[in-house]
Design the sequence.
């Protein structure tokens, strides 16, 4: 079983939709979780960093960690065409990344 | 203006040649990392360093070497022993291990 599983998509939504991106992980001891946005041919850009369980909100982005289910989520409200990118989840404890979900927001 | 720089952006080499990718950071971060990204795959850790003059192998270290002689620099050498070197290489740094990582713009290496 992979340490971090992420549905690669692609995911296509209309502008203004709420987007839900998810990852599962295998080790319940993990505590440090990150979400990155990566535009084509660019380095990943840190969006959210969370420690342990709970929610963290930053503008239109909300990161959620459910340690009991070993499940992390990123929600994007009022999605915009500029949100079109690949989104990567990461486990900070052992520097492992999901494969990334490619998102397209259509105007 | 703080950040991480990688050079060059594109690199072309002939098979059998060693090549060194540069990574510099002025964020005063202790930890630095090298990842490789292939199409359809997530980032895979090659090497990481938590402190100057010390580094550890990641999941795919074979065919690569690194050095960490200065806090701000963590160059990666892709040796001729690396079987499939063509990839997008990303360098990152963090204040300490487990903290959020910040990435450079990447170097796309093509070996023919």
Sequence:
């Amino acid at each position: 079983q992979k340490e971090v599983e992420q549905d690669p998509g692609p995911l296509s939504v209309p502008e203004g939709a709420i987007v839900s991106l998810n990852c599962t992980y295998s080790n319940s001891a993990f505590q440090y979780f990150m979400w990155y946005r990566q535009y084509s041919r660019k380095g990943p850009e840190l969006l959210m960093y969370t420690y342990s369980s709970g929610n963290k909100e930053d503008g239109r982005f909300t990161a959620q960690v459910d340690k009991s289910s070993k499940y992390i989520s990123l929600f994007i409200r009022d999605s915009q065409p500029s949100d079109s990118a690949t989104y990567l989840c990461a486990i900070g404890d052992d520097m492992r990344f999901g494969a990334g979900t490619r998102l397209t927001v259509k105007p | 203006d703080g950040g991480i720089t990688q050079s060059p952006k594109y690199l072309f080499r002939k098979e059998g040649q060693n090549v060194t990718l540069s990574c510099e950071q002025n964020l005063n971060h202790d930890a630095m990392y090298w990842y490789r990204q292939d199409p359809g795959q997530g980032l895979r850790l090659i090497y990481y360093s938590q402190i100057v003059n010390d580094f550890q192998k990641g999941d795919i270290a074979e065919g690569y070497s690194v050095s960490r002689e200065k806090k701000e620099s963590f160059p990666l050498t892709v040796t001729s022993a690396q079987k499939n070197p063509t990839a997008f290489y990303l360098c990152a740094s963090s204040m300490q291990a487990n903290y959020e990582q910040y990435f450079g713009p990447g170097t796309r290496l093509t070996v023919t």
Notes: Chain B touches chain A at residues 4, 6, 33, 35, 40-45, 48, 58, 88, 90, 98-106, 108 (CB under 8 Å). The mean pLDDT of chain B is 94. The first strand of chain B starts at residue 4 and ends at 7. DSSP finds no helices and eleven strands in chain B.
